[in-house]
Amino acid sequence: MTLRLDARIPPGSLAEKWNRHRFEMKLVNPANKRRHTIIVVGSGLAGGAAAATMSELGYNVKCFCFQDSPRRAHSIAAQGGINAAKNYQNDGDSIYRLFYDTIKGGDFRSREGNVYRLAELSVNIIDQCVAQGVPFAREYGGLLSNRSFGGAQVSRTFYARGQTGQQLLLGAYQALECQIARGGVTMYPRTEMLDLVVIDGKARGIVVRNLVTGAIESHAADAVVLATGGYSNLFFLSTNAQGCNATAIWRAYKRGAAFANPCFTQIHPTCIPVSGEHQSKLTLMSESLRNDGRVWVSKKPGDKRDPRQIPENERDYFLERKYPSFGNLAPRDIASRAVKEVCDEGRGVGESGLGVYLDFADAIKRLGIDVIRERYGNLFEMYQRITDENPYEVPMRIYPAVHYTMGGLWVDYNLMSNIEGLHVTGEANFSDHGANRLGASALMQGLADGYFIIPNTIGDYLASSKPQKVDTTHAAFKAAEDEVEERTKRFLSIKGKRTVASFHRELGQILWHNCGMSRNEAGLRTALRKIPELREEFWRNVNVPGSDVELNQALEKAGRVADFFELGELMCLDALHRTESCGGHFREESQTPDGEALRDDENFAYVAAWQFAGEGKIPVLNKEPLVFENVKLSQRSYK
Amino acid sequence: MNLTLHVWRQAGPKAPGKMVVYQATDISPDMSFLEMLDVVNERLTERGEVPIAFDHDCREGICGMCSLMINGVAHGPMKGTATCQLHMRSFKDGDTVYIEPWRARAFPVIKDLTVDRSALDRIIQAGGFITAPTGGAQDANTILVPKESVESAMDAAACIGCGACVAACPNASASLFTAAKVTHLGLLPQGQPERYRRALEMVDQMDLENFGSCTLHGECQEACPKEISMDTITRMNRDFIRGRLIGTRA
User: Fold this and answer.
1) Co-location of A489 and A583 in the same domain
2) How confident is the model at residue B250, as a pLDDT?
3) Can you point out the beta strands (E) in A171-283?
4) Residue A182: inside a domain
5) Which of A42, A377, A432, B119 could form a Cys-Cys staple with A373, CB 3.0–4.6 A?
6) Catalytic annotation on A332?
7) Do A493 and A613 share a domain, yes or no?
């Protein structure tokens, strides 16, 4: 029982595809739009922008988020910036160059058609955001300012200090609140999606839990959009917010949606190192810091000297040494692995030896402390608050951490999954970043999906599928509600000895050591043995206190961790099957003589889309071949 | 380090609440305040008690979800710092720490330390936006914005909507929150057409939500984790008065 995965990439040259597709898509008559209800789960850039824009078009939108307000979505934490091929700097940028950089950055594991459209729409995003009042950085003459970012040799990143994600999200949030006030969007905060309802093969609604009262409720619609973000939190320690979870996409997977490339996870090179057992999350230091900061360690292993006492000729600026043309701006996967390598050689810094220096001394000498403060002041303050060290005087210590997941639910060019009517946007889908995402591209994708793609493609779906009327009295809703209810009661009835967090931490350790920055067959097999054992103990020995008819944060967490166990296993299975290295997926068995990722295009130039086959059964692997008509597949080089 | 905590416990919106004493032992100074509470909650769970409910999410000071009154100070003793970024090294071994929810008529308690801040969303709904439906925007560089204006706008736009200003204010006024948005949008050329209407409608909504009035105590500015200046309130008042007296035409 394999799926027929048709990406539905429109014909024609890259530059023609989206334009032509927009013309060929069917439209919904303006007067009929309000008769269609669309559910959007998630209120970040991809969800909030979609909900607001579809309401502007006239659709009746219901938007859900687990936080207390749509403004809290984790898009808010993105720091560095958003890419756009505006070529305002006259430095040789173009839509094609952004497209090429993104395809290459993703190590040739994404679709040409999708990525080109993303690059094309990037310019509209900046226009839209400026119109909304996003306070992007400016030059003295009033024009927009840009900076460079990892994996690119042009300056195409727009930014609002170190809070770009916050400002873009507030733009989308304000547009959303405006639509809520006008009645086009009904907002359901503190509400978590716990199941997807599929009727006659079409996504027709969701089952949610009201997190304040505990009530289980159903919502019916003509189409469902999941914009629920990524699954980095399955590693326990990641840069994601505490609430980020995979439950919505995992429930959809169990209802039949294919999960694509789950092993493609991004480890970000510049995070504040772990300080102890108690740690609940890792904090990212924006990649933009690598514009002016230099990454180094001592040439000698075990060098415990104060970094300021280590003379220049005893330092190894290893990124500049290994990648002279990109230097400190090497892409994330490459920089992370280089950091791991020097730490494995015993040259890491800090108490744990898991860290390298990110040094601003040269930049301060060259530009003055005021310029550095203006560029990175808020990041430096954040660093000092967490570590109690002053980065203006002592080099920062950084170490890689899980940050983003390129994998997600499989979608076609219209951002629709293999379940009709179920659309997936932003980090929750798999489509644009291949095996590695470039910096400042997540915000771009979330907003391209939310503002410009889904509001167009959803109309085509509604106009061509003409969904029959369905309401929540349908038996499928009742059945899904019962399942959710039963699962909730089960968590509360186990009354074991261990907390949810203790299981989550242990799962995270298994995944970090066996399916983290580098992976090998033996490690993955170990993980695939340990995860089911731990999951079995979880269902026997977890302790979830409280009841299901109130705000119960332990219960919420239990549901999310239970899903992480299953997704973690799928991730390892995917990593085991993909015996090549590509982007963030580094299989030790497949590397070049100088230790770089070695792809196997002959056997692995495809999207691995896994399909649920029933509890306890091995999921079915479906392959969508990747066809490259415009770019030549090459060994990625940043030297 | 060891601490004695007095924590507000309240089972639900209508239940009576009270302070309950807990011992937080073996706390590392490198822990964040919320990680300290995680440890307390883990131990409560192991003892079969219901853990303390508190709002939190990003834990890097940007989402605005965390909201604790620590020893009577919104977000605790460290200036310009949200609760999640406060570390235990700001306390001493043996300290007694009082932890309460935001207290304001407009922020009813949901459970323990969590409150309902949806009133802030409704203030934004009343006018905290620039009407710019997707698709109609011109090239971004056709709008010139002086660097000074955008920097001041960004200072105000940094608001994380946590509600500390309300919690800190003796009148429980949401003036700093509202003024930050009025200032951010009002300083930009794109925000001019709706500028005076925005100020009028947001201030009216603030009153409808049962927030108090501003009497310029300045506690909000002291408590704000993003150190937003009270000057924004002056600006809001000016736009409000101009709108009321002359009309909302820009």
Assistant:
1) yes
2) 66
3) 185-188, 191-199, 202-210, 216-220, 223-226, 259-260, 265-271
4) no
5) A377
6) yes
7) yes
The CATH class for the domain spanning B118-246 reads mainly alpha
Chain A residues whose beta carbon lies within 8 Å of the beta carbon of residue B50:
545-546
Mean pLDDT of chain B: 97
What ipTM was predicted for this assembly?
A: 0.98
Task: Give me the pLDDT at residue A217, please.
Answer: 98
Cβ atoms of A80 and A286 within 8 Å: the answer is: yes
Backbone angles phi, psi at B64, to 5 degrees: 80, 10
The pLDDT value recorded for residue A595 is 87
The residue annotated as part of the active site, out of A332, A347, A535, A587, is A332
Q: Which residue's entry shows tokens 């560095």?
A: A80
The predicted pLDDT at position A152 comes to 87
Rg over alpha carbons for chain A, rounded to the nearest Å, is: 24
Q: A432 lies in a domain?
A: no
Q: Does A170 touch chain B (CB under 8 A)?
A: yes
Which residues does chain B have with pLDDT short of 70?
Answer: 250
User: Pairing between strand A294-298 and A315-316?
Assistant: antiparallel
| Nearest residue of B to residue A137, measured between CA atoms | B150
Q: Which of B30, B45, B137 sits opposite A130 (nearest CB)?
A: B137
Do A395 and A481 have their domain in common? no
Domain boundary (A359, A379, A402) is at: A402
What range does the domain containing A360 cover? 269-402
**How many structural domains compose chain A?**
2
CATH code for the domain defined by B3-111: 3.10.20.30
pLDDT at position B68 is: 98
Evaluate whether A481 touches A215 at the Cβ level (below 8 Å). Answer: no
- Tell me whether residues A502 and B42 touch, CB distance under 8 A: yes
CATH number of the domain residue A284 falls in:
3.90.700.10
Predicted pLDDT at A48 = 98
CATH number of the domain encompassing residue A514: 1.20.58.100
Question: If phi over 0 gives left and psi between -120 and 50 gives alpha, with beta otherwise, what is residue A134?
Answer: beta
Name the stretches of chain A with pLDDT < 50: none
**3-state secondary structure at position A483:** helix
The residue ranges of every structural domain in chain B are 3-111, 118-246
Please list every residue in chain B whose beta carbon sits closer than 8 Å to the beta carbon of residue A167: 154, 157
Q: What share of chain B has pLDDT > 70, as a percent? A: 100
Q: Do B128 and A177 touch (CB under 8 A)?
A: yes
Domain ends where: A373, A402, A431? A402
